[in-house]
């Protein structure tokens, strides 16, 4: 998952996964940089634990289910809303 990923829905939106940091960029400008952990569960929806595989949880308590990851595509489900975020890998 390490590297930069561009949203397939909004080309101006890029995330970077690097050294336990989840970094958001928009139009090339830094929006947010937080640490994260990969966990087997995230607490969302008033503390209920969701248990469907691996999750990326950021220090600011954002939670994403890792729906799919390949060398070229990353799909995250933002919880608790459930919307899918699809990214394509950018070349280094």
SSE diagram, text form:
Elements: E1 3-7, E2 13-18, E3 21-26, E4 29-39, E5 42-44, E6 48-50, E7 55-58, E8 63-69, E9 73-79, E10 83-89
Antiparallel strand pairs: 1-2, 1-10, 2-3, 3-4, 4-7, 5-6, 7-8, 8-9, 9-10
Structure summary:
The chain is mainly β and 92 residues long. The protein has strands at residues 3-7, 13-18, 21-26, 29-39, 42-44, 48-50, 55-58, 63-69, 73-79, 83-89.
Key words describing this protein structure:
two-stranded antiparallel ribbon; mainly beta; globular; 92 residues
The tally of strands reads 10
- Quote the distance from N terminus to C terminus: 13 Å
Mean pLDDT: 90
Range of helix content: under 10%
Number of helices: 0
Query: Which regions have little confidence, pLDDT < 50, spanning 5+ residues?
Result: none
User: From the helix content, strand content and strand pairing, which structural class follows?
Assistant: mainly beta
Q: What share of residues are in beta strands?
A: over 45%
Strand order of the largest sheet: 1-2-3-4-7-8-9-10
What is the element string, with H for helices and E for strands? EEEEEEEEEE
How many structural units, i.e. domains?
Answer: 1
Rg over CA atoms: 13 Å
Shape: globular
């Amino acid at each position: 998952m390490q590297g930069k990923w561009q949203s397939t829905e909004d080309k101006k939106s890029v995330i970077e996964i690097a050294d336990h940091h989840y970094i958001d960029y928009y139009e090339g400008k830094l929006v947010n940089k937080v640490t994260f952990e990969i966990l087997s569960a995230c607490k969302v929806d008033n503390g209920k634990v969701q248990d469907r595989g691996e999750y990326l949880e950021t220090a600011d308590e954002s939670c994403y289910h890792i729906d799919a990851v390949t060398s070229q595509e990353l799909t995250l489900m933002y919880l608790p809303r459930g919307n899918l975020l699809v990214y394509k890998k950018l070349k280094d």
